[in-house]
Design brief:
The protein is an alpha+beta fold and about 290 residues long. About 35% of the residues lie in helices and about 20% in strands. Helix 2 crosses helix 4 and helix 4 crosses helix 5.
Length: about 290
């Protein structure tokens, strides 16, 4: 994908409504870039699509005598981080965090990405920009805030399962992968003191075959065991909320007994601390 074209209508890269092409992408008709429908706080996100797939989406194709309009499936997801880095070492530190995820979760549990650095000159000045060509994950959002009883996973897979045995297999496999995910995150916390952002809607995806994938790989925060509630670079208490999501996955979805003296949850899930976190969350959402 070294010869592609992209047009971005975004204040971070253009002035007013004028559309400019990024200097680090060559023009070609081989691929088409389109704004992804799920926006990102930390990244500009685009689908990389084949022109023939877009043609089918817009003009349709005849299948069994019926004209259908299948949505074009991205070949990759292209991310441009909004962060502006002062030096290459700062970029390398960001990439190292991604490799922490890769080391502890493995490619089976995250959307793999090829991270790379570019020089952006669209504003007349040279800037270091971190980009990524990320694996596209198709599936259902695993929303920890909408767990409605034991049937939650069955309801997610019901539309794709052709029979009860397939549905039971999907649920069983999903639970196994969620357990592996929780174990990997727990080990990452113990060994490195970092936790990824698990709280955002759409950060966790369950594929039709029961695989679990973390797709937000660019917000990994340090866990600080002190009374002050840590907020990330966007003003969100992602550390505390991500720990809460981890507990929801363990207790509510996996039905796992958590020891009362568990040091992680005992510290972060104190009722008075959670109330302070909710205040910070409300303040964050008001700024959006």
């Amino acid at each position: 994908m070294d010869k592609t074209t992209i047009d971005i209508r975004d204040q971070a890269y253009v002035s007013g409504d004028e559309v400019k092409k990024l200097n680090f992408i060559n023009a070609s008709s081989r691929y088409v870039f389109r704004k992804y429908y799920r926006s990102g706080l930390r990244s500009h996100i685009f689908e990389i699509l084949a022109p023939e797939d877009i043609l089918k989406e817009t003009k349709g194709e005849i299948i069994d005598g019926i004209r259908l309009f299948p949505r074009a499936r991205p070949k990759k997801i292209f991310r441009i981080l909004r962060n502006r880095f002062k030096c290459k070492e700062a970029v390398f530190n960001e990439i190292r965090k991604y490799h922490l995820l890769l080391n502890f979760l493995g490619p089976d549990l995250i959307a793999e990405s090829e991270e790379f650095i570019v020089e952006y000159t669209g504003t007349g000045r040279s800037k270091i920009v971190l980009c990524g060509l990320q694996e596209y994950i198709e599936g259902e959002i695993l929303d920890p805030w909408r767990f409605f009883g034991e049937s939650y996973l069955k309801d997610l897979f019901r539309s794709t399962a052709k029979e009860v045995s397939q549905l039971n297999f999907q649920v069983k496999k999903a639970k196994k992968n969620i357990a592996r995910f929780v174990k990997g995150i727990r080990q990452m916390i113990v060994d490195t003191g970092y936790i990824p952002d698990l709280a955002g809607i759409g950060n966790l995806i369950l594929t039709p075959c029961g695989d679990l994938k973390l797709v937000d790989i660019n917000n990994i925060v340090k866990i600080n065991l002190n009374d002050s509630i840590q907020i990330d670079d966007k003003g969100y208490p992602s550390c505390d909320v991500s720990v809460e999501v981890l507990s929801i996955l363990e207790k509510n979805l996996l039905q796992k007994e958590i020891p009362m003296d568990d040091p992680l949850y005992r510290f972060f899930l104190l009722p008075e601390r959670k109330e302070k976190v909710k205040v910070l969350e409300k303040k964050f959402y008001k700024t959006l």
